[in-house]
Amino acid sequence: MKNILCIFFYLILVYCNPLTANELGIIPKPVNQTELPGKFFIKNNCEITAKSSNKQIIKLAGYLKDEFSKKTGRELKIKSGKTSNGILLVLNPSSVKETDGYDLVINENQVTLTGNNLQGIFYGIQTLKMILSKDNGLYFPCCKIKDFPRYPHRGFMLDASRHFQSVDFVKRVIDMMASLKLNVFHWHLIDDEGWRIESKKYPKLNETGSYLDSLNAKERNGYYTQKEIKDILQYAKERYIKVIPEIEMPGHSNAVMKSYPELLCPTNEGGNTYCAGNEKSYEFLKNAVSEILDLFKPEIIHVGGDERPKGVWEKCSECKEMIINKKLANEDMLQNYFMREICNFINSKGVKTFAWAENIKDGVPNNQIVEGWHPGESWDAARRGYYTVNADNIYTYFDYPSYPRNDKPDWMPVLNLEKTYSFNPTPDSLNENEKKYVIGSECALWTELVLMNDVQYNLFPRILAFSECVWSSPEKNYEYFLKRVKKVKPYFNSMGFEYEKGAW
Ligand SMILES: [Zn+2]
User: Fold this and answer.
1) How far is the CA of 314 from the centre of ligand 1 (A)?
2) CATH number at residue 103
3) Dihedral sign for Cα atoms in the order 117, 350, 231, 223
4) Residue 462 · residue 398 · CB < 8 Å
5) 166-214 tens-digit pLDDT
6) What distance in Å separates the CA atoms of residue 327 and residue 103, rounded to the nearest whole number?
7) Separation of 353 CA from ligand 1 center, angstroms?
8) Is the same domain home to 159 and 243?
9) Does one domain contain both 190 and 305?
10) Beta strand ranges found along 314-357 (DSSP E)
11) pLDDT tens digit string along 305-346?
12) 165, 189 in Cβ contact below 8 A?
């Protein structure tokens, strides 16, 4: 009886402790993985082979070579054609059918990474980087993986307005995102505290609007030059990350109003809001946005739209005149008019718009993607037939404390690792048709209270949980996740990201 009990408890232990020292630790969890016996040792003659002369695949081979060399100090050779003993990169959409998916087969003689597209191969490389191990030599554990993303929009939003981050740091964030197979960098570059994009058309945005803080000048003042932005865009592009710049309007615009006060309502109220009755506001925004579109060449631009101070426009004679002339019901509808004017202009340049959910019951401009940050907003958008990114703040705002803390404001709820992990961007309460409108999620780091060096503690380990919410299948096992969090810790530490202590 004692032996049977021992076996029983052993089985429970094995079942509940699925990750042992030699097993794979991959985050986000692949759709399917089978661990096989053996190891593929990376010998001195190991080559990376692109099974085609496609320049982009050879470029990916170069990326893998560079990453391997950064991590290990060893140089691998690259060739194209056939291989019998090395790492083979293959592009084959008829064998890997899922968009951005990849298959990875590792046996003792060869690693074969097959992608549905280039992005799929790139994601397979991220998995290879994460499972690279050392034990009497560098090796990849033998396994078979089939993997593809749950959502097409897997984002991280970084607030560069409240506190400013260096170019090198932003690149490190982009590398971290790539490792977690996140593909949208939502860059919050403009808010009350600062305008962070070099403007050649409106120099006061930089002379004044980028230098508003006299007390914490080092961390809170500055802007990215156009050259630096181009450099970051190229860096992100090479990592299959789409950059969406955010230009706040009509509120959250104190940095603009300090630079060009003539754009405020003549009442001088609502100090951070454009006067929607003044044609100069529209002219300024169209010119400023044109410069940003020329610089970023984005597929999508975020136009903010949230938290306009209420009651300001109703006191302004010019705004009131606009409400009457355009036959609008109230100042909320004036905001819809304002946003539509700017969004139509952006659409006319072939660029889509993205905005925080605000007053969506009265409609959004054509094809605008709605970002819901209050609970339920994205579901509402989906029910109305708008494509939506569910960034429900109670699961995705990483400026919230991950455990009860006295040094955070009372209004911030605790968002611990387990709660982040439990997030399902597409709840079962939506019907099958409505679910199609939820295209993904974003986690956000607002930086009112977060200095650049503290960004890592706000992100880690919660961003690991978030990556599984947007990449992996919705079936979850928190204990198994925690074991993998532990296993990948050295990997992220080596990229310069520490986990928050006491948070998990
Ligand atoms: Zn006004």
Assistant:
1) 8
2) 3.30.379.10
3) negative
4) yes
5) 999 999 999 999 999 999 999 999 999 999 999 999 999 999 999 998 8
6) 57
7) 24
8) yes
9) yes
10) 352-356
11) 999 999 999 999 999 999 999 999 999 999 999 999 999 999
12) no
